[in-house]
Amino acid sequence: MKNKTLISVVGPTGIGKTRLAIDLAKHFNTEIISCDSRQFFKEMKIGTASPSEEELAEAPHHFIGNLSVEEYYSIGQYEEDALKKLNELFEKYDTVILVGGSMMYEKAVIEGLNDLPEADEENQKKLQEILDNNGIEKLQEMLKQLDPEYFSVVDIHNHRRLLRAIDVIWQTNKKYSEQIAVSQDSRDFNTIRIGIEAPREELYDRINRRVDIMMEKGLLEEAKSLEKFKYMTALNTVGYAELFKYFDGEWDLDFAVSEIKKNSRRYAKRQLTWYRKADDIHYLPLGYSQENFNEVIGYINEQFQQ
């Protein structure tokens, strides 16, 4: 019987996963591994809503601000690093917390990634030409036709993800979503998935408010300081891509901020689509009470006994 447990805290952006992960880490006197791929980058604190210094002090966190935007970091590297860290932590604790809304990064830790082919140079060259000549919209359209399931959950603004998926589909003649759905590695720990849910309108209101708070905290200045890296993969993401268009004079600031809100809501919708397919997530309500928290601790303790 597996005697170590990973509690994975999931849910859409802006719903309060950081707070729940800290509450669980404090209850079980353990540490937190982040699987939020945007929070890996130390220069992007405001736009990715990274945990504050006060939150980081409440419980030890790993994989927060551990990279620079100038570094390339793949999901395969993350899987390897996260499992290594997890094994270290399991020497000290019976329970560890995983938290983040990057769906594929959570999957990499709890299930493992499929053994996909290496990038094909010719395919990558063709796709890069399409991107350069026709823009990212053409790649989005191609992926939607080839694999609507993956298109419904991928970050469609991340050109690297689109290039990778189309390349693999071309090489294998199989949908990317089918190939990544096959778990290759069995894990030697149990996983309990805990989520937070809210009515969609309430979630969208929270996301809109959070963007306003980010702007108040200095997101514009943070994005300006990163403008020289805007072609790096890490910066090709919601909250930064829109402000770069403002700096380029394409959009005015109000429109750029409204686009950040819209794209954040769209990303949340993709996350909800992904999580809705899972039948192993135990949910708490948004703004959960002590009673709700006690109930989820009871649920976790029951799972320990199984």
Polypeptide structure, described:
With 306 residues, the chain is α/β, with parallel strands linked by helices. The protein has two domains: 5-114 and 183-305, P-loop containing nucleotide triphosphate hydrolases (Rossmann fold, 3-Layer(aba) Sandwich); 121-180, Orthogonal Bundle (Histone, subunit A), CATH 1.10.20. Helices cover 54% and strands 9% of the residues. The chain contains 14 helices and six strands. It has helices at residues 17-28, 53-58, 75-92, 103-110, 121-134, 136-146, 148-151, 159-172, 176-180, 200-217, 219-225, 241-247, 253-276, 290-305; strands at 5-10, 32-34, 61-62, 95-99, 190-197, 281-285. The protein has a six-stranded parallel β-sheet with strand order 3-2-4-1-5-6, with helices on both faces. β2, α2 (53-58) and β3 (61-62) form a beta-alpha-beta unit. α5 (121-134) packs across α6 (136-146) and α10 (200-217) packs across α13 (253-276). The longest helix is centred in the last third of the chain and has 24 residues, at 253-276. It starts with a strand and ends with a helix. 35% of the residues are buried. The mean pLDDT is 93.
